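Lecture 7 notes: from sequence to structure.
We start with the chain below.
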Amino acid sequence: MDKRNFRFGEHALLLINPGEFMRRVESSLKSQRIFANADLVEYLDDKYTGKLGPFKKLRRFAYQSEWRLVCYNGPGGPREIRIGSIQDISVIMRSDDVNKEITVDFEDFEQGAEPDRP
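Predicted structure tokens for the same chain:
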């Protein structure tokens, strides 16, 4: 994680089961009849001068690797979506420990070939 993200707080919440998190969010939105869209933010050239929508930001913020959930037809401000405890699918740790504790491994495979499945 880019160290500039550490200025957002001393602690970070890491989702260890993002699929289950999304299932809970979708279930809550459906039960509350909230129309929403979720996606990764697209980062545009910093010289861009057009309109920015809810999923677009300037490239200088790309280090944030942001995911957003946008709810429509609401009061126009932040909304509270209750999904219950996420203690079973997340971990809280000190922000400055994230890069020490989390690793991502990539395996090479031939282009066009399916990766080995366990």
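Points to note: The first helix runs from residue 18 to 31. The mean pLDDT is 88.
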